[in-house]
Design goal:
alpha/beta, seven-stranded parallel beta sheet, globular
Amino acid sequence: MVVGCAAMDDRPVLVTGGAGFVGIHVAQELLRAGIAVRIIDALLPTAHDGPVTELPEDAEVVVGDLRDPDVARAAVRGVQAVSHQAAMVGLGADVLDIADYVAHNDLGTAQLLRALALEGFRGRIALASSMVVYGEGRYRCPEHGAVRPGPRALADLEAGRFDPPCPRCAAPLAPEPVGEDAPADPRNVYAATKLHQEHLCASFAREVDGVAVTALRYHNVYGPHMPRDTPYAGVASIFRSALERGEPPRVFEDGAQRRDFVHVRDVARANVLALRREEPAPGAFNVATGRPRTVGDMALALAAAMPGAAAPVVGTGEFRRGDVRHVFASADKARDVLGFEAQIGLEQGMQEFATAPLRRAARR
């Protein structure tokens, strides 16, 4: 679907977290479209170990923490739009991360919005949200139709029963694509903060005329410049690090958990489409391929792209209590409204990812 582009002036677009994994690609995509870019990033040691060398030369770069109201005010001054990527991501190390997630993701977003209000901002915000706000995906019971299973029981996980049963009759369930109309059900600290970011931004848009917020719910993003060797990295990065050490990646549970793996350049395009669309597109949109694959599939595709790599161990039985079983997307709304369709398939993306530059190991 072809969607018309709104005219953009010579004022910069602010990319928060613009030195991060997704933020760098968003900045590059904006610059390729001839749009001025201002990057702000706190360069947290959990995401950056040493100087960042991948930043676009043509972008204005501000090093600072959005939680500081003066820094936030300076960062937003004179911008025409915002791509809000700044956040702590992933499940993290343990529950002791809870205060850091809330501080960076929730307070950082609140200070950004306050600064925009003080500067009289009237424009669009593309918010980096996440599929984790859904919790488990959509399921169907042959007897009871669409159902929402609760968190998986520890006893079931320990016994290797990884698929959630029907909460009404305990029958096996069939997973289905989850649409943006699914109720939110965040099941870990990171997920709770991403949903709160959506709520804060939506409230801001309701209060301030002329502001539109597009919440882009990223599914499993991978690609060049992922962070590596950190508890905040994505599973693709963790698997590649294992393969580079000559070790087989260990695929938890039975390897059949289904996700939607979307390339970071496709994610960047979705941000630019949301900011440049002729008419604003408020609301939430899945950013995904619409073609779900198992985590085991991903591990095998990555290993196949690395000659001589160890074969993955698919189905170790290990698990993380904060994980969900199946969550994959309906990509229809993003296609129909934003004109977004992912262009990079898993095998093609893994061929590139096998040798793509990754971010250096981060410090705790």
